[in-house]
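Ticket #298: bound-state structure for S-adenosylmethionine.
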Amino acid sequence: MGRRPDDDSSFLLSWPLIELERRIEFALVTSPEFYANARAYDIAFSDRDFADECNFLEWCLRTHGCVAADDSRSFIELACGPARHAREFARRGWRAVALDLSPDMLDYARQGAIRDGVLLETVAADMADFTLDRPVALAANLMESLSHMVTNEQVVAHLRSVSRSLLPGGVFVIEMAHPSTIWRDNLPNVWSSRSTDVPYFAGEPYTEVDVLFGAADDPYDWITQQWLVTARLTIRESGQPERVVEHRHPHRWYQAQELRALIELSGAFSKVWWYGDMLIPPPPLDNDAERMMVVLRK
Ligand SMILES: C[S@@+](CC[C@H](N)C(=O)[O-])C[C@H]1O[C@@H](n2cnc3c(N)ncnc32)[C@H](O)[C@@H]1O
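RESOLUTION: The complex was predicted; output attached.
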């Protein structure tokens, strides 16, 4: 454990360095195995309507963007995982880009695109530090993947990277957990998924995945506001021995006002809208909303 903030005043100056050291330590003691099991991850998180979510993203661009018509059909999915949204946009005839840190996820996304018969550009990069050669009209960071940006500096760098990669008037959509849920008092967070529940996996070997995302004793650091989240996949595939992969990784979920302050600090966007779900039209972000949707215009 590092020094406490009241030990001496130099703590405040060295805080970002301490955070950086912690991240390096986490990176060394954990592994990216949770995301390396891309197919199991895809089965575990497939109970969403990707086409509906893309309709919402299109609505955001139509309603809040102002991009020249010629350039308007281009999209990047950040922290894309299996890139189901990017592949859906590719199916709709858009230029589709998928960015992730994990080579395994990108391999899986590329195979998925081949299987779908669509064109997908993939970028292996840290979403806190990237620039696209050709900017896009619409960007999305979905399913709370912003929680991988665990320091203020990372969030601001991420917002600036996304803005650099957007056309003028382009739109960036962020999906985060509703602020009322970020203290995670419903732990452990567990569920099971079967490949046969999802038509997409029809004809593939039967796979069952038990997921634990957040254990009851996961530590929370009140100063850095980071959870060290336990993630476990128990994978049962026909004809194979059961496999269990587990790791712990830092995540940070954001309150609306701190996210608002970081967006303002980034200076990367001209307007912001807050919504409570991915419906068309979306409900406002209020105390009873399902989630926190942030729509930013460059
Ligand atoms: C929740 S998952 C995928 C979310 C995906 N958009 C979806 O809707 O299913 C998060 C992804 O973030 C990726 N990731 C984690 N840290 C990252 C970073 N710093 N830069 C880019 N990708 C990152 C992981 O490899 C993983 O594929």
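RESOLUTION NOTES: Confidence is low (pLDDT under 50) at residues 1-31.
TICKET STATUS: resolved
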